[in-house]
Amino acid sequence: MIGTVLVARPDNAGDVLLSGPAVRAVAGGAREVVLLAGPHGRAAAELLPGVSKVVEWRAPWIDPNPPPMTGPHALRLLRTVQEVAPELALILTSFHQSPLPLALLLRLAGTPRIAAICADYPGSLLDVRHVVDEDVDVPEAERMLGLARAAGFDLPPGDGGGLAVRRPLPEVGHLTGPPGYVVVHPGASAQARSWPAESWTRTVHDLVRAGWRVVVTGGSGERALTARVAGARRSGLSGRSAVPDGWTGRVQVRGPAEGRPVHEAARGTHPAPGRAGDGSAWETVTDLGGRTTFAELAGVSVVVVANTGPAHLAAAVGTPVVSLFAPVVPATRWAPYGVPSVVLGDQNAPCRGTRARVCPVPGHPCLSSVPSAQVVEAVNRLAFVKEAVR
């Protein structure tokens, strides 16, 4: 068994959560796993099973608001890595990222062995160069697990390779009320991945009309958005039935849970515990914007969300996900992994594959074209599936 392994994933929370299977594989063959995270991924890193310690450094070639790449900034990383003194480092990347800048810094810090996926010639920067066909879209969790295997680590017996977080999770019943609610998380880290606020507001209204209790979540910087979305019940919105005739959605399970018996929901609405009108004293819509830690958000879980970290947090706790997914990155790689999910949005829109942070197409048609009725129908289908697989 090897001693200390440094696993680096200095990205956002969702990317860190997707690295979980690779981290657990390394933990099964190492005495200690230290995870190098960025400031946007640290909270997620601290939830990963198998991680002994988390160290933080902001990578200027990855962070969306990058700091200057200065000598003092580099020295902070070198000192951190020297204190960890890893015998091996695994650099986890997405298909559009190069591991070589970080490999160079780790080498300067004295790391004796470094492994990464790399298409470019690495010279002496890598000891394990894992080459994959990047023209084939593979789920990110499986791609990173492939690197761990190339470096000599595999999942322990009985580990199915899904996403996971440390248990027990914080109790959140005092915030949400009893189970049976739908969580709506309207925020996203990039404008190109965001569903219009008015669509979220309409969806909350239609979910309530369909009989659901709704919990709206968001970070401390998203309170104005969650207040607007949660205020749908009082906004006087009106419209046609939230569950349309003729829309056919498909429930998918991506990842290691694909073999379990998931049943397609029958058409129409389905009874679920905790819906509005069950005699509960809880509000029909609850605004938790800025009121939960990342760990508490894991306890709340998420059902309706854009392509952002909480979607992967929901998958990590086994919650079915309705994903409002903009195709600026491939859904095959980044859609919710290992749980029943419905992906909504035009996956062939002109923005496909651009990796844009700001929508390059006027009107944001890939997501603005999704009506709230499709979201409500998808929620009803996934609620049926969740009951069927218990």
What does this structure look like?
The chain is an alpha/beta fold and 390 residues long. The chain folds into two domains: 2-150, Rossmann fold; 173-388, Glycogen Phosphorylase B (Rossmann fold, 3-Layer(aba) Sandwich). The chain has 14 helices and 13 strands. The chain has helices at 13-18, 20-27, 42-45, 71-84, 100-108, 140-150, 173-176, 197-209, 223-230, 294-300, 309-316, 331-334, 365-368, 372-388; strands spanning 2-9, 30-37, 53-56, 88-91, 114-117, 128-130, 182-185, 214-216, 252-253, 285-287, 304-306, 321-324, 340-344. The strands form two sheets. The protein has a seven-stranded mixed beta sheet, sandwiched between helices. A six-stranded parallel beta sheet has the order 3-2-1-4-5-6, with helices on both faces. The chain starts with a strand and ends with a helix. Residues 233-251 and 259-281 have low confidence and may be disordered.
Number of strands: 13
Largest sheet: 7 strands, mixed
Could you tell me the mean pLDDT?
Answer: 87
Number of helices: 14
Which structural class is indicated by helix and strand composition? alpha/beta
Secondary-structure arrangement, i.e. CATH architecture of the largest domain = 3-Layer(aba) Sandwich
Order of helices and strands: EHHEHEHEHEEHHEHEHEEHEHEHEHH
Into how many domains do the coordinates divide?
A: 2
Task: Name the shape in a single word.
Answer: globular
The CATH topology assignment of the largest domain is Rossmann fold
